[in-house]
UniProtKB/TrEMBL annotation:
Keywords: Disulfide bond, G-protein coupled receptor, Glycoprotein, Membrane, Receptor, Signal, Transducer, Transmembrane, Transmembrane helix. It is found in: Membrane. This is Uncharacterized protein. Residues 418-572 form the GAIN-B domain. It comes from Coilia grayii (Gray's grenadier anchovy).
């Protein structure tokens, strides 16, 4: 490259290599006026270094020229050298400080080689503000020679206008005129601006003031819902700037909130604002929700040091002053300013999260290779989670989504060299350096990963998932979050990556509640499920398997945040509710028919003492089952039931179902006595005393004790109430926790005793004295089956399936679904089965019923007994 008539300034910086201090260094400025090649300079420098023991660095001005294009955006600055350069850089001088310019949201730096013998450095500025106005310098490096060029870039920007009114709401509810003060301020202030204030009412537009401040009266008759004001600023006829402000008007028909403390009277739906106290930046907001109802105060006032930190991070994200030292300062300040003990406001939290987000953008364009920066980032992020954010769930959702996106980006972009584990209160970072398999434990989360990535970063985050938005209203968060970053992952079609993640659940999983393994999608701020599946572990841990499809590619890395969601309601089987309603309806009708037949044929079927005992127990069983089924139907829809009625229904169901089972126990005891003590019949007085005690008093005492223990005595019952408001039934709080056990334990004991009675009857059938007259084993088997079929409904044996339903889980597989269907069918139709076995299946009842019918119908029927003839004496009469 040749320069004609140019002014060359050369600065020699000579540093001796003998290890001495700066006293042995020297600077020389040389000014040349000549035409020569730039390569000759590098040749001279090389000879000087060869012939001396010094290190020479040369800075030149005049060998490179800068061109500036500022006619339209983006503004472009470029420097071109007729040689191949190894580096290009840009800087801007602000207040006697040289600030580095790097890639960001505003600045774009490029170093290209248009040809094999030239280099071009360009800087583009998109939407720059006043920060970017100043003297720019481009620097191109070739070896020890720096080629520099400078140029000034003025950026014409419109003034910042601020328009305020006092009062914020114009109160026209009573007076015909209201006084208002409107102020228009310009920043930076200047005497060249002409300011005009306007009022744009519903009926006319009027120039109110040729000054920055207007104070006057407004006629309420000229305005309706809002008063529109405008500020016009001009400095020449071709340049005008506007700022508008809408002032709400409170009329006599409007709802409003009365003034409270610092908050003025405000129209419904309008947000009032207030300035911050000294030492804080921002504003406070409060919205009038309705008539005399204020919303919560949203305190967006941030401490001045946090506001300055946010501004510094924002400038770095724009590309202004990006250096490792400034990045380190931001992370360290975040760590120091995010102490929860400083009583942070929502403005503090918002500013710190925005700072994290800006640093995420910085880390995309500027390589951060510092373990200490990673440590400061983790400590600051952990402290932010320990702060109180907001009482508004929507605000927390928005902040948490931005927080997670920033943490994901910084975890991916910051390069860690030596640290394999960094721990804090709410975050834990671990590294798997170039391992084909990776097994780690972070905050109780066990991770096992098979990956083709060179390096895997893992970050466990506590407390965050409760705040993240969830589009699926049927699920709720139930575990912490795990960020997985796979660096330099292999090609997309490689199927080798697979992860298994075991999450400890934040609360014990209730029975039949499904777990969903999910990962966070930053593109739409929601949880996704594709590529992950839940493997049933237990009620305290969830095991998830995720494949490569669940990992999001960002550049050469794959990043995802994994967690789990739990269904709010249990899994429901198809048609189960319909079966329940149909079965209960059939049972209620059947029990009514059964009781009617019993009343109608009572004298005929209860002639003997034993049959009287049996039918007395059957009538009580049917009566209590009928009442329990009716109340069960009455509590099927609980949304509109008042709380006292729900409690009454729960107590009634508890008592009636227990009474039914205790009467089943009475029947079982009578049968057992008659089979074992054949020649010692049960006396009537003993039976009625025993049955009244067992059938009425025992269930009443059981219900009373359960109610007092769980509802009346303070601090008892594992902090559990007696009934569940959603189901109007007893509560279940875990293993041996909850009032449901006051029902299950007695029912389980009674069912076992009834099963024992059935076994005794079957064994009696198999004894030789009973079976010697039988020549066919098939008849014996048929007799046993008939005994089981007849006794199961009236002994409640089918309720044993309920224990299978209780201890199993519908999410485990089809077997548990079969158990649920079987339990529902057999027990909702229990009344119908009692009608079949207690009336239609009993010979005496059929005969008496037919005798009665024959009085009205001239026909005869010949019926054969369906019961086994092998049971004899009192046992056969009982059955």
């Amino acid at each position: 490259m040749f320069l004609n008539c140019c002014f060359l300034s050369i600065c020699y910086i000579i540093t001796h290599t003998d290890g001495s201090d700066d006293k042995n260094s020297a600077k020389f400025n040389v000014t040349l006026n000549a035409s020569f090649k730039a390569t000759q300079l590098e040749k001279v420098i090389g000879e000087l270094e060869h012939n001396s023991t010094s290190t020479i660095t040369v800075e030149t001005e005049g060998l490179v020229e800068m061109s500036i294009h500022s006619e339209s955006e983006p503004y472009t600055l470029s420097c071109q050298a007729e040689d191949m350069m190894s580096e290009c850089s840009w800087s801007i001088r602000k207040e006697s400080e040289e600030v580095v310019v790097w890639n960001g949201s505003t600045a774009t730096v490029r170093c290209v080689h248009p040809s094999t013998s030239s280099t071009q450095a360009t800087l583009s500025l998109s939407n720059p503000d006043r920060l970017w106005s100043g003297l720019y310098t481009c620097t191109l490096r070739s070896g020890r020679v720096l080629y520099k060029a400078s140029g000034d870039l003025p950026i014409p920007l419109p003034p910042d206008l601020t328009l305020k009114s006092n009062p914020e709401n114009l109160d026209c509810s009573s007076d015909a005129k209201q006084r208002i003060r409107v102020n228009c301020s310009v920043s930076p202030p200047s005497d060249v601006y002409n300011i005009t204030l306007y009022v744009l009412s519903d009926k006319k537009t009027e120039v109110m003031s040729k000054d920055a401040v207007f104070t006057g009266d407004i006629n309420c008759k000229d305005v309706a819902d809002y008063l529109n004001t405008a500020c016009e600023v001009t400095n020449n006829p071709d340049e005008k700037h506007f700022k508008t402000l809408t002032v709400p008007v409170i009329t006599s028909t409007d709802d409003f909130c009365d003034s409270v403390s610092e908050w003025p009277r405000t129209k419904k739906g309008v947000t009032a604002t207030r300035s911050c106290e000294p030492g804080r930046v921002g504003q406070k907001n409060r919205t009038c929700k309705g008539k005399h109802v204020w919303g919560p105060v949203e305190n967006y006032c941030a401490r001045e040091e946090i506001a300055k930190l946010l501004n510094k991070a924002e400038n770095l994200a724009k590309g202004f002053g990006v250096t490792p030292e400034r990045i380190r300062e931001v992370f360290l300040d975040m760590k120091n300013f995010s102490d929860p003990k400083l009583e942070p406001t929502l403005g503090d939290v918002t500013s710190l999260i925005n700072t994290l987000d800006y640093m995420k953008h910085v880390s995309k364009d500027f390589v951060i290779k510092s373990d200490s920066d990673m440590e400061h980032f983790i400590d600051a992020s952990s402290s932010i989670l320990s702060m109180h954010w907001s009482d508004d769930a929507h605000v927390n959702q928005s902040l948490s989504a931005k927080y997670l996106q920033a943490v994901e980006g910084l975890t991916q972009n910051i390069q860690v060299n030596q640290s394999t584990e960094l721990n804090s209160t709410n975050l834990l970072f671990q590294l798997c350096p170039r391992e084909p398999t990776c097994s780690r434990n972070l905050l109780g989360i066990n991770v096992a990963l098979i990956s083709s990535a060179q390096q895997v970063k893992l970050m466990a985050i506590d407390r965050l998932t409760d705040w993240l938005p969830n589009d699926d209203a049927t699920t709720v968060s139930c575990s912490d979050a795990l960020v997985v970053v796979q660096e330099n992952a292999s090609r997309e079609e490689d199927p080798g990556t697979k992860m298994t993640i075991e999450f400890p659940l934040t609360s014990e999983r209730p029975q039949n509640h499904k777990i969903v393994c999910v990962y966070w999608q930053t593109s739409n701020n929601t949880w996704a499920r594709e590529g992950c599946r839940w493997i049933h572990k237990n009620n305290t841990h969830a095991l998830c398997e995720c494949d490569r499809a669940s990992l999001d590619r960002t550049g050469t890395a794959r990043t995802r945040t994994f967690s789990t969601l739990m269904s709010r309601v249990p899994v429901e089987l198809d048609g189960l509710n319909t079966i329940t309603l149909v079965g209960l309806g059939a049972s209620i009708c059947s029990l009514i028919i059964f009781l009617a037949i019993e009343c109608f044929l009572w004298k005929a079927v209860a002639k003997t003492k034993l049959s009287h005992f049996r039918h007395t127990a059957l009538v009580n069983i049917a009566t209590f089952l009928l009442l329990a089924d009716c109340i069960f139907l009455a509590s099927a829809v609980t949304e509109h039931l008042p709380e006292p009625f729900c409690l009454i229904l729960a107590v009634a169901k508890h008592f009636f179902y227990l009474a039914m089972f205790f009467w089943m126990l009475c029947l079982s005891i009578v049968l057992l006595h008659q089979v074992i003590f054949i020649f010692q019949p049960l006396r009537a007085k003993v039976f009625f005393t025993l049955s009244a005690t067992i059938g009425y008093i025992c269930p009443l005492v059981t219900v009373g004790i359960a109610y007092v223990y769980y509802e009346v005595i303070p601090g008892s019952g594992d902090s559990s109430s007696y009934h569940n408001r959603e189901t109007c039934w007893l509560t279940y709080k875990g293993s041996m926790k909850g009032s449901i056990y006051s029902f299950m334990v007695p029912v389980g004991v009674i069912t076992l005793m009834n099963l024992f009675s059935m076994v005794v009857v079957i064994v009696t059938l198999l004894r030789p004295t009973f079976s010697e007259s039988k020549t066919d084993d098939r008849e014996m088997v048929k007799s046993i089956i008939k005994v089981i079929v007849i006794l199961s409904p009236i002994f409640g044996v089918t309720w044993a399936l309920g224990f299978g339903v209780f201890v199993t889980d519908l999410t485990d597989g089809p077997l548990w679904m079969i158990i649920n269907y079987a339990f529902t069918i057999t027990n909702t139709f229990q009344g119908f089965f009692i009608l079949l076995t207690g009336c239609i299946g009993e010979r005496k009842v059929r005969e008496e019923f037919l005798k009665t019918v024959s009085l009205f119908v001239s026909s005869s029927y010949h019926l054969h007994s369906d019961l086994p003839d092998t049971l004899y004496l009192n046992a056969s009469e009982f059955l």
